Prior knowledge:
Strand content: 5-15%
Helix content: 40-55%
Number of strands: 8
Shape: globular
Order of helices and strands: EHEHEHEHEHEHEHHEHHHHHH
Radius of gyration: 20 Å
Strand order of the largest sheet: 3-2-1-4-5-6-7-8
Amino acid sequence: MEIGMIGLGRMGANMTERLLLGGHQVISYDHSPEAIQRVVDKGALGAHSLADFIKQLSLPRAIWLMVPSGDPVDQTIGQLLPSLAKGDIIIDGGNSNYKDSIRRAEQLNQQGLHFVDAGTSGGIWGLQVGYCMMVGGEKEIVARLEPIFKTLAPKDGYLHAGPNGAGHFVKMIHNGIEYGMMQAYGEGFELLNASQFDLDLGKIAHLWNQGSVVRSWLLELCESAFDKDPKLSSIKGYVDDSGEGRWTVIEAIERGVSATVLAHSLFARFSSRQQDAFANKVIAALRNEFGGHAVKKE
Protein backbone atom coordinates (compact mmCIF):
# COMPACT_ATOMS: atom_id res chain seq x y z
CA MET A 1 0.00 0.00 0.00
CA GLU A 2 1.12 3.60 -0.59
CA ILE A 3 1.29 6.01 2.35
CA GLY A 4 2.69 9.49 2.84
CA MET A 5 4.60 10.22 6.07
CA ILE A 6 5.09 13.77 7.36
CA GLY A 7 7.42 14.04 10.36
CA LEU A 8 10.56 11.91 10.50
CA GLY A 9 11.63 12.24 14.11
CA ARG A 10 12.29 9.30 16.48
CA MET A 11 8.87 7.76 15.87
CA GLY A 12 8.15 8.80 12.29
CA ALA A 13 11.46 7.56 10.90
CA ASN A 14 11.17 4.17 12.61
CA MET A 15 7.56 3.76 11.52
CA THR A 16 8.60 4.58 7.95
CA GLU A 17 11.29 1.92 8.09
CA ARG A 18 8.87 -0.68 9.50
CA LEU A 19 6.39 0.07 6.72
CA LEU A 20 9.13 -0.29 4.11
CA LEU A 21 10.14 -3.64 5.59
CA GLY A 22 6.47 -4.64 5.30
CA GLY A 23 6.50 -3.99 1.57
CA HIS A 24 4.66 -0.65 1.53
CA GLN A 25 5.66 2.36 -0.53
CA VAL A 26 6.32 5.43 1.63
CA ILE A 27 6.61 9.00 0.37
CA SER A 28 8.29 10.99 3.12
CA TYR A 29 8.61 14.65 4.08
CA ASP A 30 10.25 16.55 6.93
CA HIS A 31 11.62 20.05 7.43
CA SER A 32 15.06 18.46 7.79
CA PRO A 33 16.73 17.33 4.55
CA GLU A 34 18.96 15.04 6.64
CA ALA A 35 15.91 13.31 8.12
CA ILE A 36 14.50 12.77 4.63
CA GLN A 37 17.78 11.34 3.39
CA ARG A 38 17.94 8.86 6.28
CA VAL A 39 14.66 7.23 5.25
CA VAL A 40 15.43 7.51 1.53
CA ASP A 41 18.55 5.44 2.26
CA LYS A 42 16.17 2.80 3.68
CA GLY A 43 14.02 2.75 0.52
CA ALA A 44 11.49 5.55 0.99
CA LEU A 45 10.74 8.18 -1.65
CA GLY A 46 11.68 11.67 -0.47
CA ALA A 47 9.88 14.96 -1.08
CA HIS A 48 11.58 18.28 -0.46
CA SER A 49 8.41 20.38 -0.27
CA LEU A 50 4.78 19.74 0.64
CA ALA A 51 3.81 20.46 -2.98
CA ASP A 52 6.24 17.79 -4.19
CA PHE A 53 4.97 15.45 -1.46
CA ILE A 54 1.33 15.84 -2.57
CA LYS A 55 2.27 15.44 -6.24
CA GLN A 56 3.96 12.08 -5.62
CA LEU A 57 0.95 10.53 -3.86
CA SER A 58 -1.69 8.62 -5.81
CA LEU A 59 -5.40 9.38 -5.39
CA PRO A 60 -7.06 8.86 -2.99
CA ARG A 61 -4.15 9.92 -0.81
CA ALA A 62 -3.40 8.56 2.66
CA ILE A 63 -1.20 10.95 4.67
CA TRP A 64 0.17 10.07 8.10
CA LEU A 65 1.20 12.94 10.39
CA MET A 66 3.84 12.37 13.07
CA VAL A 67 4.23 15.95 14.26
CA PRO A 68 3.90 17.47 17.76
CA SER A 69 0.35 17.85 19.07
CA GLY A 70 -1.53 21.14 19.05
CA ASP A 71 -0.79 23.93 16.60
CA PRO A 72 1.75 21.94 14.53
CA VAL A 73 -1.02 19.47 13.56
CA ASP A 74 -3.45 22.25 12.64
CA GLN A 75 -0.77 24.14 10.74
CA THR A 76 0.27 21.05 8.77
CA ILE A 77 -3.34 20.23 7.88
CA GLY A 78 -3.89 23.86 6.87
CA GLN A 79 -0.87 23.74 4.55
CA LEU A 80 -2.06 20.50 2.96
CA LEU A 81 -5.72 21.42 2.61
CA PRO A 82 -5.60 23.50 -0.61
CA SER A 83 -3.92 20.63 -2.47
CA LEU A 84 -6.09 17.77 -1.19
CA ALA A 85 -8.94 16.13 -3.13
CA LYS A 86 -12.22 14.58 -1.96
CA GLY A 87 -11.63 11.13 -0.54
CA ASP A 88 -8.13 11.86 0.75
CA ILE A 89 -7.34 10.65 4.27
CA ILE A 90 -5.29 12.34 7.00
CA ILE A 91 -4.09 10.13 9.87
CA ASP A 92 -2.80 11.78 13.04
CA GLY A 93 -0.48 9.34 14.80
CA GLY A 94 0.76 11.79 17.44
CA ASN A 95 -0.39 12.41 21.00
CA SER A 96 -3.22 14.82 20.16
CA ASN A 97 -6.03 15.72 22.52
CA TYR A 98 -9.05 13.62 21.52
CA LYS A 99 -11.29 16.71 21.50
CA ASP A 100 -9.01 18.26 18.87
CA SER A 101 -9.30 15.06 16.84
CA ILE A 102 -13.11 15.22 16.90
CA ARG A 103 -12.96 18.86 15.79
CA ARG A 104 -10.50 18.12 12.97
CA ALA A 105 -12.59 15.20 11.73
CA GLU A 106 -15.73 17.33 11.59
CA GLN A 107 -13.94 20.12 9.71
CA LEU A 108 -12.36 17.76 7.18
CA ASN A 109 -15.57 15.77 6.64
CA GLN A 110 -17.32 18.99 5.61
CA GLN A 111 -14.86 19.18 2.72
CA GLY A 112 -15.22 15.55 1.66
CA LEU A 113 -12.01 14.49 3.40
CA HIS A 114 -11.48 11.80 6.02
CA PHE A 115 -9.63 11.90 9.34
CA VAL A 116 -8.28 9.03 11.45
CA ASP A 117 -6.80 9.40 14.92
CA ALA A 118 -4.24 6.70 15.61
CA GLY A 119 -2.93 6.61 19.16
CA THR A 120 0.51 5.04 18.88
CA SER A 121 2.53 3.43 21.68
CA GLY A 122 5.86 1.69 21.42
CA GLY A 123 8.43 4.46 21.55
CA ILE A 124 11.85 3.89 20.06
CA TRP A 125 11.37 0.09 20.31
CA GLY A 126 8.48 -0.01 17.87
CA LEU A 127 10.67 -0.66 14.84
CA GLN A 128 11.70 -4.05 16.24
CA VAL A 129 8.65 -5.15 18.23
CA GLY A 130 5.82 -3.18 16.63
CA TYR A 131 3.52 -0.40 17.79
CA CYS A 132 0.34 -0.76 19.81
CA MET A 133 -2.24 1.13 17.77
CA MET A 134 -5.51 2.60 19.12
CA VAL A 135 -7.50 3.86 16.14
CA GLY A 136 -10.54 6.11 15.85
CA GLY A 137 -12.43 6.89 12.66
CA GLU A 138 -15.06 5.82 10.14
CA LYS A 139 -15.29 2.04 9.89
CA GLU A 140 -14.85 1.92 6.10
CA ILE A 141 -11.84 4.25 6.13
CA VAL A 142 -10.11 2.40 8.97
CA ALA A 143 -10.68 -0.89 7.13
CA ARG A 144 -9.09 0.61 4.01
CA LEU A 145 -5.98 1.49 6.05
CA GLU A 146 -5.82 -1.87 7.84
CA PRO A 147 -2.77 -3.16 5.88
CA ILE A 148 -0.82 -0.19 7.28
CA PHE A 149 -1.98 -0.77 10.86
CA LYS A 150 -1.29 -4.50 10.69
CA THR A 151 2.25 -3.86 9.44
CA LEU A 152 3.00 -1.32 12.15
CA ALA A 153 1.47 -3.37 14.97
CA PRO A 154 2.51 -6.74 16.41
CA LYS A 155 -0.04 -9.57 16.38
CA ASP A 156 -3.27 -8.38 18.03
CA GLY A 157 -1.65 -4.96 18.52
CA TYR A 158 -4.17 -2.89 16.58
CA LEU A 159 -7.76 -2.01 17.51
CA HIS A 160 -10.42 0.10 15.84
CA ALA A 161 -11.56 1.62 19.13
CA GLY A 162 -14.53 3.57 17.78
CA PRO A 163 -15.44 6.80 15.93
CA ASN A 164 -13.20 9.84 15.54
CA GLY A 165 -11.59 10.76 18.84
CA ALA A 166 -11.83 7.26 20.33
CA GLY A 167 -8.29 6.33 19.33
CA HIS A 168 -6.69 9.36 20.94
CA PHE A 169 -9.00 9.06 23.97
CA VAL A 170 -7.83 5.47 24.61
CA LYS A 171 -4.20 6.56 24.11
CA MET A 172 -4.69 9.41 26.60
CA ILE A 173 -5.92 7.02 29.29
CA HIS A 174 -3.09 4.61 28.38
CA ASN A 175 -0.57 7.36 29.09
CA GLY A 176 -2.29 8.26 32.35
CA ILE A 177 -1.95 4.64 33.49
CA GLU A 178 1.68 4.68 32.35
CA TYR A 179 2.31 7.66 34.67
CA GLY A 180 0.92 5.70 37.62
CA MET A 181 2.90 2.54 36.84
CA MET A 182 6.18 4.42 36.54
CA GLN A 183 5.47 6.31 39.77
CA ALA A 184 4.92 3.01 41.61
CA TYR A 185 8.17 1.55 40.28
CA GLY A 186 10.00 4.78 41.09
CA GLU A 187 8.81 4.87 44.69
CA GLY A 188 9.48 1.14 45.17
CA PHE A 189 13.05 1.38 43.93
CA GLU A 190 13.60 4.48 46.05
CA LEU A 191 12.67 2.42 49.14
CA LEU A 192 15.05 -0.34 48.04
CA ASN A 193 17.81 2.20 47.47
CA ALA A 194 17.25 3.78 50.88
CA SER A 195 17.38 0.47 52.81
CA GLN A 196 20.14 -0.66 55.15
CA PHE A 197 21.03 -3.42 52.67
CA ASP A 198 23.45 -3.10 49.77
CA LEU A 199 20.93 -4.17 47.16
CA ASP A 200 21.59 -4.70 43.45
CA LEU A 201 18.64 -2.90 41.90
CA GLY A 202 19.29 -4.28 38.40
CA LYS A 203 19.21 -7.85 39.68
CA ILE A 204 16.02 -7.17 41.62
CA ALA A 205 14.37 -5.73 38.51
CA HIS A 206 15.42 -8.86 36.60
CA LEU A 207 14.20 -11.13 39.40
CA TRP A 208 10.77 -9.51 39.55
CA ASN A 209 10.28 -10.20 35.85
CA GLN A 210 10.60 -13.95 36.42
CA GLY A 211 6.98 -14.88 37.21
CA SER A 212 6.31 -12.04 39.67
CA VAL A 213 2.90 -10.32 39.65
CA VAL A 214 4.66 -6.97 39.02
CA ARG A 215 6.55 -8.16 35.93
CA SER A 216 6.31 -5.88 32.90
CA TRP A 217 8.17 -4.36 29.98
CA LEU A 218 8.73 -1.24 32.09
CA LEU A 219 10.49 -3.43 34.64
CA GLU A 220 12.70 -4.83 31.86
CA LEU A 221 13.58 -1.24 31.02
CA CYS A 222 14.37 -0.62 34.70
CA GLU A 223 16.86 -3.47 34.53
CA SER A 224 18.36 -1.96 31.37
CA ALA A 225 18.70 1.47 33.00
CA PHE A 226 20.32 0.02 36.16
CA ASP A 227 22.74 -2.05 34.07
CA LYS A 228 23.93 1.17 32.44
CA ASP A 229 24.08 3.18 35.68
CA PRO A 230 23.49 1.12 38.88
CA LYS A 231 22.67 4.14 41.05
CA LEU A 232 21.40 6.41 38.25
CA SER A 233 24.02 8.87 39.45
CA SER A 234 24.34 10.51 36.02
CA ILE A 235 20.61 11.32 35.78
CA LYS A 236 18.90 14.24 37.43
CA GLY A 237 15.53 13.42 39.02
CA TYR A 238 13.64 15.84 36.78
CA VAL A 239 10.60 14.30 35.09
CA ASP A 240 8.91 16.15 32.24
CA ASP A 241 5.34 15.50 31.11
CA SER A 242 4.03 15.46 27.55
CA GLY A 243 0.52 16.65 28.36
CA GLU A 244 -1.54 13.48 28.21
CA GLY A 245 -1.31 12.91 31.97
CA ARG A 246 -2.80 16.36 32.50
CA TRP A 247 -5.62 15.66 30.03
CA THR A 248 -6.37 12.36 31.77
CA VAL A 249 -6.71 14.02 35.17
CA ILE A 250 -8.86 16.82 33.72
CA GLU A 251 -11.09 14.16 32.12
CA ALA A 252 -11.43 12.41 35.50
CA ILE A 253 -12.44 15.70 37.14
CA GLU A 254 -14.97 16.51 34.39
CA ARG A 255 -16.56 13.05 34.63
CA GLY A 256 -16.40 12.74 38.41
CA VAL A 257 -14.18 9.66 38.30
CA SER A 258 -11.79 9.05 41.19
CA ALA A 259 -8.33 8.72 39.65
CA THR A 260 -6.19 9.35 42.71
CA VAL A 261 -3.13 7.35 41.61
CA LEU A 262 -3.05 8.99 38.19
CA ALA A 263 -3.45 12.45 39.71
CA HIS A 264 -0.72 11.81 42.29
CA SER A 265 1.69 10.58 39.63
CA LEU A 266 1.14 13.76 37.62
CA PHE A 267 1.64 16.03 40.63
CA ALA A 268 4.75 14.05 41.57
CA ARG A 269 6.21 15.01 38.21
CA PHE A 270 5.61 18.65 39.03
CA SER A 271 7.35 18.25 42.40
CA SER A 272 10.31 16.55 40.70
CA ARG A 273 11.24 19.93 39.28
CA GLN A 274 12.02 21.23 42.75
CA GLN A 275 13.79 18.18 44.20
CA ASP A 276 16.03 15.33 43.11
CA ALA A 277 14.50 12.18 44.60
CA PHE A 278 15.74 8.74 43.52
CA ALA A 279 12.17 7.79 42.52
CA ASN A 280 12.25 10.59 39.96
CA LYS A 281 15.62 9.39 38.66
CA VAL A 282 13.99 5.99 38.00
CA ILE A 283 11.05 7.59 36.16
CA ALA A 284 13.36 9.84 34.11
CA ALA A 285 15.47 6.80 33.22
CA LEU A 286 12.38 4.82 32.18
CA ARG A 287 11.14 7.61 29.89
CA ASN A 288 14.55 7.66 28.27
CA GLU A 289 14.60 3.88 27.89
CA PHE A 290 11.22 3.46 26.19
CA GLY A 291 10.80 6.72 24.33
CA GLY A 292 14.24 8.23 23.98
CA HIS A 293 13.02 11.26 25.94
CA ALA A 294 15.87 13.55 26.99
CA VAL A 295 17.11 13.38 30.57
CA LYS A 296 18.83 16.11 32.53
CA LYS A 297 22.35 15.11 33.51
CA GLU A 298 23.92 15.67 36.90
